[in-house]
Structures are given as structure tokens and as C-alpha cells.
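Q: For a teaching session next week I want to show students how multiple molecules come together into a single three-dimensional assembly. I've collected the sequence lines for a complex. Could you give me the predicted C-alpha cells for the whole thing so I can convert them for display?
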Amino acid sequence: MLFVSAATRAPGRAGVQQQTQPPGQPTTQQAPPPVAPPQQTSPPVPVQPVHTGPVIVLDPGHGGTDTGARGESGAIEKEVVLQYAQVVRGQLESQGFRVVMTRTDDSNPSYADRAAIANAYRDAIFISLHVSSTGPVGTARVYYYGFGSSPTGPPAATTTTASSVPLTPSSSSLIPWDQAQLPYVQTSHRLADMLQGELAQRFAGSPISASEAAVRELRSVNEPAVAVEVSSVSVPDPSPLSAMAAPLAASIARGIQAFQSAGSAGGN
Amino acid sequence: MPRNLKIVLGILGVAVLIGLISLRDLHERVRRLSENQNAEEQARREVLAPPISTPTDVNVQAKIFWAAGPDKVAPVIVELPLSADAVQRSRQVLEELISSPPTPEQRTLPADATILGFYILRDGTAIADFSDALVTETPSGISSEATTIASITGTLENNVPSLKRLKILIHGQEVDTLAGHVDLTGFFDLNPPAPQPVATPAHGDAAPAAPAPAAVTSTPPRSAEILRQLRELTLTASVGRLGFHSSCQSHVPMKGASFAS
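A: Of course. Below is the structure for the complete assembly, covering every listed component.
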């Protein structure tokens, strides 16, 4: 069995300390000492902007032979989500986030590969992007991981995960790869609700709070992780789907910022 | 007229009369058959999944969860004869869920999906083995797949209160996802409604299915342990078809002790 070492990555602690700084603002006060301190007038030392927030791992679902959902109009999930991911990436990078993608072409990394990309960072947020084959066109839903039985977002207290492994690993224990998401379910739930709130403002008809679902991609992610699903590939022509990219990116960016600024207060 | 001829004519006359009567009956049957062409699917279902009836069937108000919108399920009260045996009862409500959605829009499982096996472990873990159609014909998408799962878990937990969690197999095998998104490698929680469990007739048989519910819930078994049992179960699958539930206690060492410890 594979394990993720929790020794260096106790959930919340190390991460939250880093999150105390909002991401959007260029980091002047924490600006590294090595740079000549008094010389305020020499900005043209624009080394890459110093990223302080979490790394945002964008995961366009499917890819390669796995096309995902297909619409009669020819909309294919794997292509739409890649397009979305690129727009979201641009938006996040323009706000100073560091963004990593699990795929940038028509490849199909395994679920474990996708999780491993996120797990390589001490402080990251994993966002998996999907397009459904059902549901009202022009809505979006956010999911966090869980095996609870109520589809309509039960109160957090009852969303015990099925196999109820210890949810608070000690900082020195190993976490089974299969269950890496479990300690993060509550944090992911918070993030999902924040994203869903933003999406509901931009996509009328979307729910106002996130739902629980056992999304396979999230299972082994040892970070806060959510899946965003846009409806749907069953459009007569793909243009409304493309039009959703920009508001989707704006929603995700705002949701992440809200999550971050609340993160230092909320803890895990 | 010779006597022989009379007799022959008489016999012939009777034969023609009988023939005419049976012909009319035959004609009637052919007509009825041709009327029933839309029952083809029904007939196929009856071959693949014969209606389950047991001596302990009692008519109850079953709550079957069908789709109510793009990503929700809601219970529909259906009067059904349900068995007191938890395995049979589970199969009956799942059959109803598959075969009788009130409208096509409310369908949550493919019409072609059949239940190949249903087992209940001692600790209340239910194992439902579905045919391939469940994975090949469920629309791909988190919301559609989650709706399918929710309809299964909702239907089970509201009609068979002794169940604690559910494992879904496809043709006897564990699969990664339902249709590309929802994880089927884990166990779905089943939480019977807290205020008065629906089915009083099932109460009697809850005891053999979950001998020590309190002890079990306080220390849920690890998934590895259950998977191990699952493998033993599939080895004795042929026994399962003949009512595994009642025989499992003698055929499979269930390690109940390791759960309680």
C-alpha cells in the first residue's frame, strides 16, 4: 500500500501559517531580505513575483482516450475542461497565484498521477474541472469528497466518511494513499461552499451550497480539493459552453481568495 | 347408409366441432399476444430478474427514491409486498427502483441494469452486485452519477434499516468509478432515518443481520477487512444465489470478534 508522509505536511498547521497573507497583494512587507533593503526606487529587479499563497493545482478531467461526456453537438468534456483550465489559469496567475496543471494537452494522467502533482506541494489547492452530460445548461456545481448518503448536502456533522479512519493523523503518521483526502474533507467542504457561492452569483440556477460526492479524482489528494462541474455538453452548439469560461475563472479566483482570507481564522 | 359410415361421419362431426371451438380459443390467444408487443421489455425483465416473492411478504408503504430534478432525489411512496428477510427485501426495493420509475425523467438507474447478487455481512455492510449496464449506461458526470448512487442508498436505508453501509460491485468485481467520476472503491454510508424506522416487519430479522449493532457502530470495520471478506464471499458466490444471507454464518468465518475488539 502506498502512503503519503504526513511528517512534513500536517494538515493545516504549516499551511495556515503561510496563508495569513492575502495573495493578491504583492508581497512588500515579507519581501525577502536578500534584496537590497533601502533601495525603494529600483523596481526593475522584477524577479518572478513571490508567490505566498497556496499553489493552485488545476485538473482538467479526462483526456486522451477517455473523452468524458460527449454531447450531440460535438462538445467533448475533455476538450472543454482543458479550455476552461487555461482560462482559469490565466485569471489566477494574473492575481499572483502560482498555478500548476495536471495536464496541458490531450493526455490522460492516472488518478494517482493527478493527486501526486498536488501532493508534491506542502500548501496547495486542488480543483478538478468537469462538464456534465445532464442538468440545466449554464449552471455549475461544486463537490467535495465523501461517501455520505444524502445528495443534497447534509449538515457537515453527519457527513462521516464511510470507513471512518482516524481523521486527525498525528504529524508523524503515514496516511494511506487511498484515504489521503479524508483529513481534509471539512476544509474542502468550506472551500467548495465558497466557490459554489461565487458560481451561484454568476450562473443563475446553480445551487447555493456545495454537495458531497465521492469524486474519484479527489480521493488521494492530500490537500483541500474540490471538483467543479459545469452543465452540460448537451448543448445544441458549444458556444454557450465557451462563454462560461470567463465567469467560471472569475468565480474560482474569488472563491479561492475568500477561502484563503478565511483560512487563517478557520483552521482545519 | 352403412353403419360404419354413420359412425365415421359422427366422429368427424364431433372433431370438426371441437376444432372450431379450440380454433376460436386459439384465435383469441393470438390476438391477445399481438396486443402485448410492448410487453417485450417486461418479458425480458422477467427472465433476467424474476419478481421476488417470499412467504413473509407483507404489503408496506415503501419509500423509493427517484430523481427529482437534475441533481436531487426524492422519495415516492409505493405500496409493495416486501419480505421480512433483509436480503430479499433489499432486492425487492432495488428491483422496484430499476423497473418502475413513475416517469422516464425520474429514472435514476438504466432499465437494463440487473441485480446479480445482494449480500449482507454480519456488521450490516451490504454488497450489491449489479450488471455491466449500470456502468455502461449511466450518463457520465458527477451530478448524474451522484444521483444514481443517492437513489440506491436512499432507497436502501429507508426500507432496510438494518443496513449500515453499501459496497457496489459490477459483475462481481470492484470497479474504479461508476461512469468516470464517482468512486465505487469505497463504502457508502447508510443512515436509516432516525425517527421510527419505517419497516416494522423487517424488525424481526434485523437481529441476525446485525447481532450487536451498538458494538459494531462504535468500531466500524476497516475497509481492508471487509474487502477480505468480500473475496471470500465471491469464492462462495454460487451459495449466494441460493440465499447466502442465511447460510453465510456457517460457510464463512466472519471474524466478528475482530470487529468488536
